[in-house]
Every structure is written in structure tokens, then in C-alpha cells.
Amino acid sequence: MTVEIIVSLCVVVVCISPLIILGIVQYNSKNPVGFWAGQEPHKAAEISDIRAYNHKHGIMWITYGIGFIGCFATGYFFGEDWGLIAAVLSGIEVFGGLVGMVAYHNALEKRYWLENGQK
């Protein structure tokens, strides 16, 4: 294993583990979770099924983190010839993943959010 791979692996672990940990925490949360930084999460009375809402948000973050690990694995296991492909996959994961997460969050909001707060 070369120094570049070891440093890259350290960067991946340091940068991606918070996403996976956030997903695990959200998955196991008893209270409704938030998505946007700085915005208060909904109150429990405003969500129709808190457990399903939190599980889906948690799985979303875990999947996002695993996607980055997959990009790293592509570059590592297939060698330098696939390095450019791994970089492109990472770019797609960053931008496409964020757009997908925002769209999925909005779909979850429509599905589980009760506008009048009555279940």
C-alpha cells in the first residue's frame, strides 16, 4: 500500500464517517430529525409517522456516505487506470447525491408532514 492510498483512506474515513454516523443517529432517533442546517426539526405532532420519517432520513445519509466509499473503492481496487472514473463518480456522487437528497427530503416532507398538526 502506497503513501497516497493510506492518506486517501484517512481522508475518506475522516470525511465520510460523520455522514454515516449522522445517518445512524437519525435512524435511531425518537424525535423528528432535521435536514437543513440551522432549521429546527418539526415537532412530533407535525409528523404522521416519526419512526418511518427518521428511518428514511437515516438511510438516506448512510447511503450517501456508502456511495463515497464506493467511489474510493473503485479507484483503489481497479488501480490508476480507473482513477479518472473514480473522480468522475465522486463528482456525480457529490452533486447528484445532494440534489437527490434534497428531492427525497422534500418527498418525505410531503408524505409525513401534517400541516395542521393533527394525526
What is the fold's blueprint, element by element?
Elements: H1 3-28, H2 50-78, H3 83-112
What can you tell me about this protein's structure?
This protein is mainly α. It has one domain (17-35, 43-112). The protein is 71% helix and 0% strand. The chain contains 3 helices and no strands. Helix 1 runs antiparallel to helix 2 (50-78) and helix 2 (50-78) runs antiparallel to helix 3.
Q: How large, in whole angstroms, is the Cα Rg?
A: 17 Å
Q: Give the uncertain stretches in residue-range form.
A: none
Count of spatially separate domains: 1
* Straight-line N-to-C gap: 56 Å
Major beta-sheet overview: none
Number of strands: 0
Oligomer: single chain
- Counting helices, strands and paired strands, the structural category is mainly alpha
**Helix-strand topology string:** HHH
Percent in helix: over 70%
What is the arithmetic mean of pLDDT?
Answer: 88
Proportion in β-strands? under 5%
What global shape is seen? elongated
Number of helices: 3
